[in-house]
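User: Here's a chain of 142 residues. Predict its fold as tokens.
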Amino acid sequence: MNRTLKAKFHGEMLALYDHCARIGFRPVLFRRLVILKGGVEAARELVFKPGTTGLERLIEAKRTDLSMEAAMTSAQYRCLFSPLEIKEAAKRLEGIATRERSRGRLMATASPLSKQDAAKQDAANQHVAKQDAAKQDVQEPL
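Assistant: Prediction complete.
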């Protein structure tokens, strides 16, 4: 039964690509990983990767029901995953309201820097800017 259930989950993961394509999103890399590793192994790997944008795109489309995380946490497929994997998938689904888009990555919304941390960041940025300017001065014209 477990083998049949894995095959069914694999098929569902492949079908997610077609469902997503209908709403204007084509998760090509997700599909490739599912084909190469199988649906269950791909989900186990992806659920812990912080930079997956698929869930973000589905959030924007208000279709998290089409997400890998939703499939992982469904009663039908829970037995294929460890409690830690299920917990992470659920956490990602629950945390969707606190995430924002940043250069194609999902990132937790950060709290503002303290004045001391902001001053350190500014000093570091100025130092890098001075180093860049010095490098440009050293380069000889062609």
